[in-house]
Specification:
Length: 130
């Protein structure tokens, strides 16, 4: 089982974390989120029920191209392409070049773990090594 850990932090906290890492003040711990969203809403939107079904379809059927996936999913190729490119930016989908330059989607993770601070305490300690 491969699990992607995702965190939620506002822009200022993500920026502070990134700068702390760049300055050597914070070394991400094993299991710490590698992918960050600025809100629960943006995370929920990307992993909507519709998009989770798409991920399941890719994992189960292993389409050889976006065209093949569009036919399987009953979605337009342009809409599908936009969705998959966004998902690939967050590591939820991998897009590799296949035969004759086609894009071949795959799903590298079978689970997502969400790391959310309810009190803000974890986000405030980001630069302090957590």
């Amino acid at each position: 089982m491969r699990t992607l850990t995702i965190g939620i932090a506002d822009y200022d906290r993500m920026k502070a974390r990134t700068l702390a890492i760049a300055r050597g003040e914070h070394k991400p711990a094993r299991g710490e989120p590698k992918v960050w969203f600025t809100s629960l809403d943006s995370f929920a939107k990307l992993l909507s029920e519709h998009n989770r079904h798409l991920l399941e379809l890719i994992a189960r059927e292993r389409p050889r191209s976006l065209t093949e996936l569009a036919e399987m999913a009953g979605r337009s190729k342009s809409n599908l392409s936009r969705t998959l490119k966004t998902m690939s930016q967050y590591g939820l989908v991998e897009l590799r070049r296949g035969e004759r330059g086609t894009l071949v989607p795959s799903v590298p993770y079978d689970h997502v773990r969400l790391d959310v601070s309810l009190t803000g305490a974890a986000g405030e300690a980001v630069g302090a090594g957590r």
